[in-house]
Amino acid sequence: MNKINIKEIYNILLDKYGPQGWWPVRRDAKFCVSTNRYEIVVGAILTQNTAWTNVEKAVDNLIILGLMDPKVIMDIDQDDLANAIRSSGYYNQKAKKLKILTRYLMEGNFLQSENIPERDDLLKLWGIGEETVDSILLYAYGVPVFVIDAYTRRIFERLGILSGGEQYEVIAGVIADSIEEDPEVYKEFHALIVRHGKEHCRKTPDCITCILKDFCLY
Ligand code: SF4
Fold first, then answer.
1. Domain containing residue 155: CATH number
2. Among 38, 102, 131, 160, which is 20 to 30 Å from 66 by CA?
3. Tens digits of residue pLDDT in 117-136
4. In angstroms, what is the span from residue 22 Cα to ligand 1's centroid?
5. Nearest 10 degrees: Cα torsion 206, 209, 213, 217
6. What's the 122 CA to ligand 1 centre distance in angstroms?
């Protein structure tokens, strides 16, 4: 069996699923792409350890209550914010993270200007890890950093790209060496990996109709 490379995985997944239109939001029961930087930042926190459907409910609630505004989030009582995002799970922690991150972005003028926060500075904030930081940098700021999540690790390990246990930055380096450093490609590829991970390459995979099965070592 020929070992597949990362660029081939991208092309096959794009052929199969088409453009995914991330960052996704829900408006009036329709899915569309969010270009609102702060909404993407909020979504990146809320999606930690939960399904996107739960995030949508919390985002909708923030909008309905008039809370999707960084100035409001900075001022609101943390318990009230937690109640508003309850559907996203871990709501007390997420409320705290949202307030800390929002204050950092506002004080650094990162929401009101074209200033881009430094990755290392974001990583110093409480409760915000590499996957979340890279989601924010890629989707809210267009920085070409690849978002590596559990789906990426699982699919790349099963396809023999990774051997398992590699550090986050090692995986990022492998990907950066394999595809052009284009934020639009990175956005699309991550979204395609998530789609494939949900539809086929689950913990117990559905391999029979998988488009990658001819290249898979699993
Ligand atoms: S063949 Fe199975 S294990 Fe391999 S990528 Fe497809 S779904 Fe995942």
1. 1.10.1670.10
2. 131
3. 999 999 999 999 999 999 99
4. 23
5. 20
6. 34
